[in-house]
Amino acid sequence: MKLLTPLGLLGLLGLLVLLLIYLLKPNYQQKMVSSTYVWKRSLRYRKRKLPISKLRNILIIICQVLILTACAFILAQPFIKKEVPPEITEKAAVIDASAAMRVKGDQETRFERAVEQVKVLSEATFKNDGIMTVVMAGAKAETLAFRFRQADAEELFEILDELVANKSCTYGNADIDGAIKLASEVLTENPYADIVLYTSNTYIDNANIEVVNVSEANEWNAAILDCRAKLEENYYTFSIDVACYGRSERLTVTAEVYGTNNDDAKIELISEPVYCENGVTQTVVFKPSEKQSEKNIFKFDSVFVRLNEVDDDLSEDNIFYLYGGTEETIRVQYYSTKPNTFFANVLMVLRDGMRGRWRLEISEVRKGSPELSGFDFYIFEHEVPSELPKDGLVLLVNPSASPKDSGLTIGKEVTGAFNLAFGEKHEITQYMMPEIMSVSAYRRMEYSEEFKPLLYCGNDPVFVVKNTRASRLAVMSFSLNNADTSMEINFPILITNLFNYFIPSTATVTKVVDGAEEKVPQYVFDVNETVCINTRGTNLSLSFSGEGGVENDYEYKDIPFEIALSACGTYTIRQTLLSGDVVVSNIYVKMPSDQSNIFRTVDALEGVAAKAPDREEDKDLVVYVAAALIALMFIEWWLQSREHF
Q1: What is the model's pTM?
Q2: For the chain, percent helix, then strand, then coil, each to nearest 5?
């Protein structure tokens, strides 16, 4: 125990005053008087009570001594000094590397400013013999330095310099939550370490994380958030979302449309100035017009959209590329000696359903010999050609003979009443209900290991597929004429799945449609969004035109594959078809729209560090001494009140 005001113990001098009072207090004197009966009785009573009175008086004196002592201690303000852990300065710095940190004001970006401030923090920490941890919140959180001390200072500063030299700031969203979790690992070693986040975001609830906002008040950004093309009444309408952040401005949008209509001309569309209030999104629309029929567009290769005469602090979102305005032609040939309505209906449905993605040219051959090249999808019903085509998908329906060099042998016909059942789980049979499908006849098949059985009748496979770089073949060993009406529901699903599997869109993204995951074709993606790249040919290459026009080429052997594209720009995909033709398509990867808002306000940090235990403080004893004083005063009063009892 220690005293905050030791001079308060002078109050113990009151004990001397109490002693003096008791010394000067007059004592009872004994006098001789004549005895009487009453006096004798009272004397006998007094002698019986005397021991209790002495005890009470002793207790009163003790209480009075303790009361004076308590008063003196209250004046001295006693306290118990708690043991505290040794002071070790430890900091865990988290650097936000999101696209909004690329904002450049006063000749340096926010990211560079954050790195410089981490350097300053590190120097101050090392000066106090402290410990530093640095985590970067990029597309994925990454620990750059874990619990570095003064001896590691040079290495840490080299790491920070490389961040700036390599332009490590991303073009997409940052994994702030993951970075905070990594930084929180230092708390297992030192629960009193401080976590500091360098960012441009404002957090309403930042929990126990120190947030350093590196943005500047005069920064601003004008952005193209999105661009869409919609075919309406045979002509395209272009809708462009624009916004300003940090200030309000009037923006003018120009759309340069390339490869238009049949003459592949360039058409330039310029909007009227549109007023963009700070933080409010506006949509610029270019619609077909009867007055400007020469600028009405029903086909295009690409659209380059830009903001005119804008000098903002973030240039990456001032342009936008849009692709997919020209449908690629897919040629389908249907050959049958006994055509049926199933194929006529399903091909019409397929043609309508693929609009906007493919333009289907369907050729039906009823007489003569079918073409064996020049098509993407061949359907042969009943009769099998002498040689199977090599440049596209081949579907054989109820083949009468074994295809040459296919690895497939057609056997005898089996008749009866049969219900279909699933074979191997596959994309081609998804959404189908084979248990309600029945056939009256089918042919047995024997096949090589390259085939996958997808539908069965009893123990016999009746629908098999082969997908290799040299051959793409699907075989249905029963006639649609021998199937019941349930085939009208399942057959369009089967053909659509077959088409999507063997003739896939080049770039797709997985989305949930009607409660099920589905790969949806797209031409515009956000940075770091997972893109599925597929090909309907033998191989594929991907190239990117980045900063300064530098192209990076990527070759892939495993197709399809998924990739997260990490930079803004145009990616060119070249695929070689089975026919040997090379098809070139483009996709555009843009900065996420929420990163264009360079002054974002976020509700709360997720995955924040656990709160460190409170540091132990000195324990004040004045309250306890005061409580004891009151108790002693009450006891002393009670003893005094019992004097005549």
Answers
A1: 0.77
A2: 30, 35, 35
